[in-house]
Design a protein that fits this description.
Blueprint: E1 2-9, E2 15-17, H1 23-26, E3 30-34, E4 40-44, H2 45-56, H3 62-73, E5 77-79, E6 86-88, H4 91-97, E7 102-109, E8 112-116, H5 117-140
Antiparallel strand pairs: 1-7, 2-6, 3-4, 3-5, 4-8, 7-8
């Protein structure tokens, strides 16, 4: 389980450290994909395989499935950490998110999200504001 938030600076080669407490779970590989909210989703390889299975066994039309697969799989990157626990963020994903020199890594249960620091502050405020309302709807069911 991933939780917490961590701020890092990206080095001149575009590398960012993975928080030490998460490195063990990510040692077999990391899959990065563009997130819906202009962040980078970082999945442990084992979790990515579950996501991939879910995405390829849905009950949508074959045409929509092809579009979904292109959108998800063609923009994904498989990486491994270097000896210091860093990953090099691919330029297309950095461009997509606006991540330049600072990044926030947020643990969100089964995966991590990497955010541009300013965008994270906005998203965090909105998420925290809405969390109470969402919890109340869960408790009613």
């Amino acid at each position: 389980m991933f939780f917490g938030e961590f701020e890092y600076r990206i080095d001149e080669k575009g590398r960012v450290p993975i928080p030490p407490r998460f490195r063990g779970e990510l040692r077999d590989g990391i899959v990065l994909t563009p997130g819906i909210e202009k962040c980078i989703n970082a999945y442990p390889l084992s979790e990515w395989k579950k996501v991939a299975t879910t995405l390829t066994t849905g009950s949508i039309s074959p045409g929509k499935m092809r579009k979904l697969n292109r959108a998800i799989f063609a923009t994904a990157f498989r990486l491994t950490m270097d000896g210091q626990g860093r990953i090099a963020l691919p330029i297309p994903l950095r461009d997509y998110t606006g991540i330049e020199d600072e990044v926030v890594i947020a643990g969100v249960n089964t995966y991590l999200e990497l955010w541009n620091k300013e965008q994270w502050e906005v998203e965090k405020a909105v998420s925290q504001e809405q969390a109470g309302q969402i919890i109340e709807t869960l408790e009613r069911h």
